[in-house]
């Protein structure tokens, strides 16, 4: 189905530019803190556009938002070719991040209204990440080629979405600037933010950590590809499981996975932890996304806010990873991720229960 092809290819395009950004930034003279800021600005603009266009998709046409998102992404990702120093790279990544936040909420709402499995649809994004990591690993740090290829794939997605049929969806009468959906589901959103802040802190410096452990470009790509490959296999099989159990298991497995990275003496010893972290994110992302989409009438906004939390965590996590690595070393960042994951679990247990009480009172 065309919508599935777009999900796979758009995620692959994103990852082609993403994997070696820390290494490329370092080659341009960026410090660890500047690397964190470069990664963070991408997430900050993703956060902004996810909220704006999630709400637009609920109030207007899904197809228009999807089409515009891929058109903008094509131009934004190509502009990365012209980055020649940390400042221009930061600007280029800001534009790329904004473009990436436009379409996901609308895509998930589109799939929901077509009554398809969200778990299976989301898993195709993970398959795209796997393909992107493997291809980027084979190409290596040839950033002009990676940036150009990303733009080309996004252009193909743009052409594919031209042929998507628009669908009928309920007409909502909600304020554009309403925060009700965010507040009603605060347990899900803010707990996810905490866990992902720790995770992004790790991913912001992970290619550099793997190099320190002896990995070359190809092995960095292979190790990164394990995570989405496992996600693809796991996410497709989560339909029978309750959202609540998936979410809680996701937080606890995250703690185990991030702690395991601390004890790796070789890049090969990182691999078991990648399997654990992949399972944890599969449970957490699918469970959280399904929960908010099923419980809220503004489907694209609810799904877009998941992406906004990921973007917000990208900002905080990138800075966290850069600062911890600069002053305390890479392993301190892994421990920080474990602490943030257990904090997310505790926050979810607290706020999630309170949100359920509010939701049940609203229903009555």
From TrEMBL:
Q: What is this protein called?
A: Arabinose efflux permease
Give this protein's Gene Ontology molecular function annotations: transmembrane transporter activity
Phylogenetic placement of the source organism: Archaea, Methanobacteriati, Methanobacteriota, Stenosarchaea group, Methanomicrobia
Species: Methanosarcina siciliae HI350
Task: Write out the transmembrane intervals.
Answer: 35-54, 61-83, 89-111, 118-139, 145-165, 186-206, 218-234, 246-263, 269-288, 300-322, 328-348
Q: Does the keyword Membrane apply?
A: yes
This protein's UniProt keywords: Membrane, Transmembrane, Transmembrane helix
Keyword Transmembrane helix in record? yes
Quote the Pfam families the UniProt record gives. Answer: MFS_1
């Amino acid at each position: 189905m065309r919508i599935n092809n777009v999900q796979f290819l758009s995620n692959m395009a994103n990852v082609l530019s993403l994997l070696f950004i820390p290494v490329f930034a370092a080659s341009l003279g960026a410090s660890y803190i500047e690397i964190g800021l470069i990664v963070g600005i991408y997430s900050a603009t993703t956060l902004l556009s996810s909220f704006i266009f999630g709400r637009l998709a609920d109030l207007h046409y899904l197809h228009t938002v999807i089409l515009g998102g891929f058109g903008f992404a094509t131009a934004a990702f190509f502009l990365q070719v012209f980055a020649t120093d940390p400042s221009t790279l930061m600007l280029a990544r800001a534009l790329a991040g904004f473009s990436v936040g436009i379409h996901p909420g609308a895509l998930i709402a589109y799939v929901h209204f077509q009554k398809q499995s969200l778990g299976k649809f989301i898993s195709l994004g993970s398959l795209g990440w796997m393909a992107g990591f493997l291809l980027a690993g084979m190409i290596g740090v040839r950033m002009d080629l990676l940036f150009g290829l990303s733009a080309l794939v996004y252009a193909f997605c743009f052409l594919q979405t031209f042929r998507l049929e628009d669908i009928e969806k309920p007409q909502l009468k909600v304020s554009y600037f309403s925060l009700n959906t965010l507040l009603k589901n605060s347990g899900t959103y803010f707990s996810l933010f905490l866990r992902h802040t720790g995770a992004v802190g790790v991913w912001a410096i992970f290619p550099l950590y793997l190099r320190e452990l002896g990995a070359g470009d190809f092995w960095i790509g292979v190790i990164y590809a394990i995570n989405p490959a496992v996600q693809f296999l796991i996410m497709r099989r989560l339909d029978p499981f309750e959202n609540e159990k998936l979410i809680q298991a996701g937080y606890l497995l995250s703690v185990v996975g991030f702690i395991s990275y601390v004890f790796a003496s070789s890049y090969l010893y990182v691999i078991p932890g990648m399997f654990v972290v992949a399972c944890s994110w599969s449970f957490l992302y699918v469970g959280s996304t399904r929960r908010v989409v099923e419980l809220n009438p503004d489907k694209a906004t609810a799904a877009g806010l998941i992406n906004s939390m990921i973007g917000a965590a990208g900002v905080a996590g990138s800075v966290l990873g850069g600062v911890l690595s600069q002053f305390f070393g890479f392993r301190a960042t892994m421990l920080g991720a474990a602490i943030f994951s257990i904090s997310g679990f505790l926050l979810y247990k607290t706020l999630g229960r309170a949100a359920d009480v509010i939701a049940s009172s609203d229903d009555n």
